[in-house]
Amino acid sequence: MIQFTNTLSGRKEPFQPIVPGEVGLYTCGPTVYDYAHIGNYRAYMFEDLLKRVLKYNGFKVRHVMNITDVDDKTIRGANAKGIGLKDYTAPFIQAFTEDLAALRIEPADIYPRATDHIPDMVRIIQGLLEKGIAYRKDGSIYFKIALFPGYGKLSKIDLSELRSTGRVESDEYEKESVQDFALWKAPKEGEPVWETEIGPGRPGWHIECSAMSVRYLGQPFDIHCGGVDNIFPHHENEIAQSEALSGKPFANYWLHCHHLIVDGEKMAKSKGNVYTLRDLVQKHGVDLMALRFLLISSHYRKVLNFTFEALGQAGAGLRRIKDFLVELETGAFPPGGASETDRLLAETRAKFDDGLRDDLNISIALTALFELIRRVNSLNKNGEIKSDDAKAIAAYVYSLDDVLGVLPPRVEEKLPEALEAKIRARETARKARDFASADRLRKELAAAGVILEDTKDGVRWKIVRTSGGS
Ligand code: AMP
Ligand code: ZN
Hints:
Elements: E1 3-6, E2 11-14, E3 22-27, H1 38-56, E4 60-65, H2 72-81, H3 85-102, H4 118-130, E5 134-137, E6 140-143, E7 167-168, E8 180-185, E9 194-196, E10 199-203, H5 205-217, E11 221-227, H6 231-246, E12 251-257, E13 260-262, H7 277-284, H8 288-297, E14 304-306, H9 308-330, H10 340-357, H11 362-381, H12 387-404, H13 417-431, H14 435-447, E15 450-455, E16 458-463
Parallel strand pairs: 3-4, 3-11, 7-8, 11-12, 13-14
Antiparallel strand pairs: 1-2, 5-6, 6-8, 8-10, 9-10, 15-16
Helix pairs in contact: 2-3, 4-5, 4-6, 5-6, 8-9, 9-12, 10-11, 13-14
C-alpha cells in the first residue's frame, strides 16, 4: 500500500487511483518569464521522485505539466523588452526543457501551453457565467467565491473574515486579500488580447490550470502537485472553478512540497541567492547529479536548506554509491555465492520500498541503501563476497536507479578488445621487465579512461567515466 499526505484532508491517506493501476498526474509547470531557479527544481524533482516511485510500484502514469506562457509576469517581461509574448517566452521554454534533461527529470507526457488552450478556458468561464457563479465588471469576469461553499477547503482559510464584496485583479495575492478573483481580464494597453465568445481579453492564471488539467486528465483526476506557495490562491481557485462548474470533485490527492531556502534564508534577487542551474554549473562548477541527489534526499514535506556544504555532502554520498559499484563490477571475487546475500538484499528491498511507499520517505530508503553498502563492504573485507554475490548486489543497486536517477550507465563487463589487448601487452612487458613500455601502455589506457590496479590476484581495471555524472 502506498500512502501520501493529502493537503485536502490534512492527513496521510492510502493511495487509491480512479482506474486501478493507472495514475493521472497534473503538476503546475513553470511560468516562463525567466530562467527557473533551484527552488522551482526542488518542486519538479519532488514530482519526478513521486512519478518514479509510482512507476516503480507498477503504476502507469499519465503526467501533464503546463507551461504558463501568459500571465501578469510574462506580459510584464515582454513589455519591458518591447517584444511579443511568444518571442519573449520561447528561450525560457527551451532552457527549461534543457534543464529537465540535465537533471534527468523524466519528461511529462504532455506540456500544454496556456496560449494554445484559450478556447477551453473560455468554455469554462462561459459555463460559470451561465450558472451565475461568475459575473462581469468593467470588461473583466470574476468568480464569486461566496457562491462556492467549498471555498477554502484546501488552504483552510477562514471565510468568516471574507470581504466578499471586493475583487482582486492580480494573479498572485496573499490570504489577507481573499476576494473574488479574475477569471478573464479586460483588454489593457500593452497586453495581448484574444477575441472570444465571452468578449475580448486574456485569461487569469488560475483558469489556465483548470482548463489544461481537465482537458488531458478528465475530472476528477488522481493527483495534483505543486509547491506550498501554490496552495493559496492558485490551487484553491482551481478547485473552485472546476468544481463549481461540474459539481464533481476536481482532484483526489493534493501533494505539496515545501520550499527550498538558501543558507537559511528565503531566495531573493536582492540577496543574490537565487541560483539557476546555469549559475551553478558555469559559476560554481556544480555536478548536477550531486544536485539531483541533494534535492531528492530531503523529504518533500520539509523545508530544504540549500548550502554548498550540503551539496558537497550529497556529492560524497553519491560517490560512495558509485565507488561501491565500481568495486563490485571490477573487483576480483572468489567464485560462487553465499546465502547471506539473498537475505541481505531482501531486507534492503523491504526497507527501501516500504520507506518510499510511506509518503515518499526517502530518508528510510537511502538509509537502507547505505546500510547495504556498509555491510557488503565489511563482508568483502573478510573475503565473504563471492562473484555471484557481487553481480547480484550490483544488479540490485542499479535497479534502484529507476527511482533515484543518479547513476551513470552500467559498466560494461567487457572492455573493447583493443583495450583488453593493451592490458595483456602491458602484462607481457612487465613480466619481461620492460618497464618503459609497460608505463607507456598504462598511460595510454588511462587516457582511454581505464585505470589499472596491480593486486596480489593479478591486474584489475576500472573505468573512470567522463559522462553521466562524475
Ligand atoms: P512558478 O514558475 O513561480 O509558477 O513556480 C513553479 C513551481 O515551483 C511551483 O510548483 C512553485 O510552487 C515551485 N516553487 C517556487 N519557488 C519555490 C521554492 N523556493 N521552493 C520550492 N518550490 C518552489
Ligand atoms: Zn497551476
